[in-house]
């Protein structure tokens, strides 16, 4: 079923000291820096690796939900 009006199916965020520094969502399908210091200190390879990891987590989440729906 639909997760709810306006709610994303899957999202991942990273915080340091209550500051959002990274976000991944289905809308972009990519892990992206949310603060300048992350953008300046991590290159494209880091963000590609994070994107691939989070896409794997998203796929596992979908599979787990499908299993739960069958019960």
From TrEMBL:
Gene Ontology BP term (one): antigen processing and presentation of peptide antigen via MHC class I
Top-level taxonomic group: Eukaryota
Keywords: Disulfide bond, Glycoprotein, Immunity, Membrane, MHC I, Signal, Transmembrane, Transmembrane helix
GO cellular component: external side of plasma membrane; extracellular space; MHC class I protein complex
UniProt membrane topology term: Single-pass type I membrane protein
Pfam families per UniProt: MHC_I
MHC class I-like antigen recognition-like domain: residues covered: 1-70
InterPro entries noted in UniProt: MHC_class-I_related (IPR050208), MHC_I-like_Ag-recog (IPR011161), MHC_I-like_Ag-recog_sf (IPR037055), MHC_I/II-like_Ag-recog (IPR011162)
Cell location: Membrane
Name of this chain's protein: MHC class I antigen
Originating organism: Sphenodon punctatus (Tuatara)
Lineage: Eukaryota, Metazoa, Chordata, Craniata, Vertebrata
Gene (UniProt): Sppu-U
């Amino acid at each position: 079923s639909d997760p709810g009006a306006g709610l994303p199916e899957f999202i991942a965020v990273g915080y340091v000291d209550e500051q959002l520094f990274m976000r991944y969502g289905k809308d972009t399908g990519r892990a992206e820096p949310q603060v300048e210091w992350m953008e300046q200190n991590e290159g494209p390879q880091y963000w590609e690796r994070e994107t691939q990891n989070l896409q794997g987590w998203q796929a596992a989440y979908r599979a787990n939900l499908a299993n739960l729906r069958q019960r």
